[in-house]
Design goal:
By secondary structure, the protein is α+β, with helices and mostly antiparallel strands. It has one domain: HIT family, subunit A (2-Layer Sandwich). Helices cover about 25% and strands about 20% of the residues. The chain contains 9 helices and 16 strands. The strands form 4 sheets. It has a 9-stranded antiparallel sheet, sandwiched between helices. β14 and β15 form a beta hairpin. It is globular. This is ATP adenylyltransferase.
Amino acid sequence: MAGSVASASGAAATAADATTPAASAALWQAVTQRYDAAQRAAAATMTGTHTEVLEEGGVRWVLRVADKLRDKPKPPPAAAEGAPEKEWRNPFLPYEQALWVADLGAEHVLLLNKFNIVPWHCLVVTAQFQRQEEPLNAADWAATWAVMQCMPRGGLAFYNCGPASGASQPHKHVQVVPLPLDGTPSGSSADGSSSGADGSSHAAGAAKPPIWAAVAPVLQGAPPGQPVELRSLPFAAFAAALALPPAEDAAAGGSGGGGGATPVDERASAGSAAAAAAAVPAAAGAYLEGVFGCLLERCTAWLGCKTGRSGLTPQDGSLSYNMVCTRDFMLLVPRRAEADGPVGCNSVAFAGSIFVRSKEEIAYVAGKGPLPILAAVGFEWWS
């Protein structure tokens, strides 16, 4: 993996042609059309939610609350005594045809998420089996960046790695959801205003996740690609500003919700999405791999000093982390626990949005606060 700041920064100058607006618009249209078709066919589901905002530490945290709250978190079903252990089936090999959106080059496929709490939740999946514990490489990043760029207000990419990260599948995949995190990529309300539930501003350009309010002041003036410790947070977190130029109106002409679009007819009608796949940005992938490598090295070095252990890796279970990335920055957070009390956390929680599905969970978050919860599943800073 490219691990030097110099190599990461050097590739940025050649990444301006990462994706063309036309290719991005075509890919976004494929996402929205395919999403609509999957919902109609019940190939994918949507859990009804609403958003509430908690302000803490200068961040407007988005609570995504299930409309049908349970009294208590649902425990995993107990296996009958003596019953054989259920064999794991890889949902990505083979994947469901109804969830396919596009092939992103030869190494990745773009799928829709099957169980959704926000619309247009996408998965960038390796075409052949690779382990989720492996670090993201340039090809992973190139495919992911193409999907991030196609979303009208930009996408939030996230990667759950390791046993304590909230990862749900062992097959390597990066997830991408549209910004802002209230599930409305256009960011426009019915009255024409441009303020989302996360409090972000939706003037022309990419929307920001809630955690940006804590990240931006620390990254101000920092060289792009240079890892910075976010000591203002109560948990260890490492971030870097990105110097990749955004695509010009990346999804101009794309349908915000796919309404009224011609239905996608399997692969035969995916020529426009294939055009976007052909524009997968190799230079952007190399740049982002370099930044990611720097953050991961900084994180493992710090964690190794804290725990007195060297050679920490996800493969042996000694390292878990969450990564989130937007057009503006990349954030990496080491993990020590998958949940705090009844509240489970994955990467999106560190972007500023926590999903709660029971009365117990919402009371727990409201009583304790998002920052102490994230500190409990992460690592406290030490000198």
